[in-house]
Design goal:
126 residues; alpha/beta; two-stranded parallel sheet; two-stranded parallel ribbon; 3 helices; 4 strands; elongated
């Protein structure tokens, strides 16, 4: 299970997912389906929406779920294997700072943004 980038691009993760699914189908008695959900992430609002979509996704009809990238690892399943490629890489590697600005109309994000922009404080961690 994986996020599908919007706009779609074919990168290393996409090639790895396709290869893993093909290997399971060709070299084992198991059947594998690559489930991808379009997941735009040009701003914080879209990113949080992607986490919500995967967090509420019902994949209980599968025996096992394998994910490797945010936000797919949030999908609930009793047998969910996470093969971690990387955490939210865009925050430390590929995003220009201007793309992380939240939509100012999204008032619900204001408290979170205040915490994220402030210096770290141990009493905020619980």
């Amino acid at each position: 299970m994986a996020p599908s980038p919007v706009p779609f691009t074919l990168g290393g993760a996409e090639r790895a997912w396709t290869g893993m699914a093909r290997a399971v189908n060709d070299r084992s008695e198991h059947a594998c389906e690559l489930l991808k959900i379009p997941t735009p992430e040009t701003n914080l609002t879209e990113l949080i929406a992607g986490y919500r979509r995967f967090g509420h996704l019902d994949v209980t009809h599968f025996d096992r779920v394998v994910s490797s990238k945010y936000p797919a690892w949030l999908a609930p399943h009793d047998d969910h294997l996470i093969y971690l490629f990387h955490r939210l890489r865009g925050l430390y590697d590929t995003y220009p700072a201007r793309r992380l600005r939240a939509d100012v109309r999204e008032r619900r994000l204001a408290p979170l943004l205040r915490v994220l922009r402030a210096p770290p404080r141990r009493d905020q961690v619980d």
